[in-house]
Amino acid sequence: MLSLSIASPSSVTFPPKPTISANPKSSFNGIRIAQVCHTLSPCACSVRNTRSSSVVMMAKREEELKEIRAKTTEQINEEIVDLKGELFMLRLQKSVRNEFKSSEFRRMRKRVARMLTVKREREIEDGINKRLSRKLDRQWKKSIVVRPPPSLKKLREEEAAEEAKESA
């Protein structure tokens, strides 16, 4: 419910115009609109407590990091290649104007970044400096064998199954 209060012209006094300061707040006192909640339960119009949702997100992130740290470096490298292929497929779907989840871009990029972070943490533990790490990274990128991403493999398998079903 909204309440509206209007100040009478005789009770309103305007302070002198302030000079430019670090705190540019409005000095308008004429109309004040406030939301009033008359129920005893928490008001639907109140600001939601986002703390609990951020705690859940943090827990999921921690679980994901534990999962990534449990993998070997070779497994991480393979998954990075797969995720980058998936990102490429998403970009293709976007350019062709197919339906896709735009949130997948961010999710995949963040996962790749977490994997690269874990990979770099392991390099630091092994005593590999930044310059050598970049050199090894360039060599690794050159050695990558291009292969279709898992989603494309799955799509091809589904198409082959449909064709086999139609021919039978």
TrEMBL record:
Subcellular location: Plastid, Chloroplast
Keywords in alphabetical order: Chloroplast, Plastid, Ribonucleoprotein, Ribosomal protein, Transit peptide
InterPro entries found in the cross-reference section: Ribosomal_protein_uL29, Ribosomal_uL29, Ribosomal_uL29_sf
GO biological process: translation
Residue stretches of biased makeup (Polar residues): 1-13
One example GO MF annotation: structural constituent of ribosome
Main subcellular location: plastid
Superkingdom classification of source: Eukaryota
Pfam family, one: Ribosomal_L29
A Gene Ontology cellular-component term: ribosome
Region Disordered, residue ranges: 1-20
Subunit structure: Part of the 50S ribosomal subunit.
Family in the record: Belongs to the universal ribosomal protein uL29 family.
Database matches in NCBIfam families: L29 (TIGR00012)
Name of the protein in question: Large ribosomal subunit protein uL29c
Higher taxonomy: Eukaryota, Viridiplantae, Streptophyta, Embryophyta, Tracheophyta
